[in-house]
Amino acid sequence: MLTCILRTEVTQMINTIRWVTLAVAALCSAMANSAEYPDPERYRAAMEAFAAEPQPEPGGIVATGSSSMRGWHRRIGTDLEPLTLVRRGFGGSNMYDVRYFLSELVLRHKPRAVMLYEGDNDAALGASPEEVLGHFEAVAAGIHAHLPDTRIYVMAVKPSLARWKIWPTMRRTNALLRARCDTDPRLHFVDVATPMLGADGKPPADLFVKDMLHMTDAGYDIWRDATQSVVVAQEAQYEHARQPEPTSE
Fold first, then answer.
1. Which fold has domain 2-33+59-242?
2. What is the pLDDT of residues 116-155, one digit of tens each?
């Protein structure tokens, strides 16, 4: 038993050292390279529309992110049954937008978990992987400052044919996000990217609509399977506690 405890502590120490090394590199790179993010206030009307909707009970799972997340909303409830989901995808967004609107998107709902998809548009804007990581750090810190036990499932940035030239940047972002998740049991990396790659190393065209960026049902089938094995596997156990007890007659 002592051996198992020591092995766990050593593993955590190694992950922490690895993370500190990555964090220092991220800081240096972010200081040298900074993308020009658009004004998040362009989404103020979208936030007001979310606020006007009937508000869910606390303790659900907020699903937020850019258009790939928003496009999933039409079937995500079925794909991730029996999870209680709060759909907060907003197309064209980036990690900084989520950081900026964290209260409106996440905190007000007091979720037990958050599913986050960003980084795709960040890369298209020219943001470095380290810059995306920095914004994710702020998102995670902001959530845990108010909801310390909330689990965060960060989804890998997906490969696409439309943005294939910047896939190396996205792949580096994924590596940084995965490494960060390895240092905190409340953070989970959901690898939706690897299963999207074909035998030739590229994503098949049938995963995308005409623009080769947004996904078809075939693409979302991959997301469903990858997410079920991580998010549903972890979160389904908490759904029973949310169900009201049957009343006796």
1. Rossmann fold (3.40.50)
2. 999 999 999 999 999 999 999 999 999 999 999 999 999 9
